[in-house]
Specification:
With about 250 residues, the protein is of the alpha/beta class. The protein has nine helices and seven strands, in the order H-H-E-E-H-E-H-H-E-H-E-H-E-H-E-H. Among the domains are: about 20-25 and about 100-195, Glycoside hydrolase/deacetylase (TIM Barrel), CATH 3.20.20; about 200-250, no CATH class. It starts with 14 loop residues before the first helix and ends with a helix.
């Protein structure tokens, strides 16, 4: 297959990646440390010391950059987002539910899962939803080299475009793991970084590990609703469609 392997950070020693890397103006990318992680693909471990402000490392300081998207501009809007698909069976069920409710959402898909279910990309678009990038292999982005960050973003973009003609503009870092180095690379590649609104992480991914109950998720959601009156902007909620349990709760 011409595409990167499933579950692995794409190889950077390929003509495609070399060309993409060459197109980046590296003088605009801050030289920040590559973060440590206990196991490949996982989010990084936070250091004991405070993270310098100019690194704006969301994972360990909750810092947002000026152009991060974490809210909808309109107060009465709700940005419904689903990460980690497409997942055959599960994503179809979710699409059916959204169609029934006449609601559109943004799906932050991974390149690797897309490569196993390309038909779901087109189906998602055909039903009026938006596609965005959740990287190729769902690794903590700050744990990757500059070249790997480029490869993760560009291969996902290319896969979606080659299979649907759809040009993605937004990227959500897995685990929200982003700092000013990763943002600077994403910007140059034409992507806006999307996180989610503070009270609107449903934690539904924990259903897969049985570390949260549907009732607890419902109460997170209700707390989010309570906060609406105090908001000047509309929320962006974080949900997932990688597991049937998550869609049942959705």
């Amino acid at each position: 297959s011409p595409w990167p392997r499933y579950g692995e950070t794409p190889d950077t020693d390929t003509p495609e990646v070399k060309a993409w890397v060459q197109a980046v103006d590296w003088s605009k990318v801050p030289k920040l440390p590559i973060r440590k992680t206990k196991s490949r693909g996982d989010p990084p471990d936070c250091p004991e010391h405070e993270v310098p402000e100019d690194e704006c490392w969301w994972t360990c300081s909750g810092c947002f950059a000026h152009d991060d998207v974490m809210d909808c501009p309109a107060k009465d809007a709700w940005g419904l987002t689903f990460d980690d698909g497409p997942q055959p069976g599960t994503t179809e069920d979710l699409l059916e539910l959204l169609k029934h409710k006449n609601v559109t959402a943004t799906f932050f898909v991974t390149g690797m899962k897309s490569s196993r279910a390309p038909w779901l990309l087109q189906e998602t678009i055909d039903q009026g939803h938006h596609l965005a990038s959740h990287t190729w292999s769902h690794s903590g982005m700050t744990t990757l080299t500059n070249e790997q960050v480029v490869a993760e973003l560009k291969w996902t973009e290319k896969y979606i475009y080659d299979h649907t003609g759809y040009k993605i503009k937004y990227f959500r870092p897995p685990y929200g793991d982003v700092d000013n180095r990763v943002r600077a690379i994403a910007r140059q590649l034409g992507f806006k970084t999307v996180i989610w609104s503070h009270e609107w992480d449903t934690q539904d991914w924990q259903l897969e590990e049985n570390t949260i109950t549907p009732t607890q998720i419902e109460s997170i959601f209700k707390n989010g609703l309570k906060s609406l009156s105090k908001r000047e902007t509309g929320p962006i909620s974080l949900e997932h469609d990688g597991d049937p349990k998550m869609v049942t709760v959705a």
